[in-house]
Amino acid sequence: MQITPNSGASSVPGAGPQDAGAMERSIRERLDQLKLDLKAEKPLRKVDMKELTTLNQEIETLRTLAGDTRAESLLSSLSDVQNRLIEVHLPELLPQIARHSREPVAFSKVADLYTAVDSRVKNGLAKLDKDFAMVQIRGDGHCCFRSMGYGLAAQLVTPEAAKNKETLQQFEKSLDAMAEKVKAQGGNIQSDVDALKGHLRLLEKGAITINDLVGSNEFVALLRSLVCTHIEKLADKDLRETIAGMSTRADELHLSEDERVASYLTRMKNMNSAEWGDAPEIRTFADIFNVRVGVLHAEDIGRGRVPLADDKVYGPKNSPYQLLLLYRPGHYDAALRR
Fold this sequence. Notes:
- This protein is an alpha+beta fold.
- It folds into 3 domains: 17-88, no CATH class; 96-136 and 291-338, Phosphorylase Kinase, domain 1 (2-Layer Sandwich); 151-287, no CATH class.
- Helix content is 59%, strand content 9%.
- The protein has 16 helices and 6 strands.
- A 6-stranded mixed β-sheet has the order 1-2-6-5-3-4.
- A hairpin with a 2-residue loop joins strand 5 (322-328) and strand 6.
- Helix 2 (46-66) packs antiparallel against helix 3 and helix 10 (190-205) packs antiparallel against helix 12 (217-234).
- The longest helix is centred in the first third of the chain and has 23 residues, at 17-39.
- It is globular and about 70 Å long.
- Residues 1-15 and 90-102 have low confidence and may be disordered.
């Protein structure tokens, strides 16, 4: 749905500033109404999907009247609406997938959601359908951590992994070694490491299912705590600069780099704030657990980019553990090779 800007757009004959102003106000009013409806989680109407398409077309017309800046601002708002609309109404749009399902699902089923919303995402999902299946993770602000946790647990505690009885033991030793590195820098993650090992042992014994584990807020809180402490104590200069640069809050702009990183980590560690995980957290997760994490970007793949480009793969190349995440605008799911 998001259309690449037309840098050389010409003006519409007979149209003036007043026409552009009226069109912009109309678009903003309708976007605001859609946001209010979504906030109240009102039932989805077919007209909502058609309205998104119409709004996109009008924004492109506005671009020819008023230039890229105003159009891009509206496209950004439109993108927020479309992502939220899909998240809120996912069960209605795709009844065969339950809201909290974590069973493999064909990408083509999810691709149908984007028919009227974003053709590039739809095309990307359709291309992935041949080789991958999706494990849908609920969108509660913790989807990145839950997706990585699912991939990790699936690698460690599966029938295939169980054939090698030393798999989990070796993994636990590597966690203990990481805890020692953090301790050497004045941090302490041993209690979190021990708790995580306990969860994985329960999974190995069949006392809990992988869905129980991934759906547990306690499990997610452990992952958040481990990632944030690792960043605090062991992150390199580049990662700290990246995190500091991500802070755009008005009340933090006057802070030093270290202060902005500390504020970011405080929010990221807090389960109640449900701060979204992204590239810094994926990179750190890969470092902590010595795993290779690839991210399938549906929109980029829909544009024809090669899956798993170098800039979207994290962790050591020689890792025995290979995780896959699917990113579609505003959300991460786990992905499995067929």
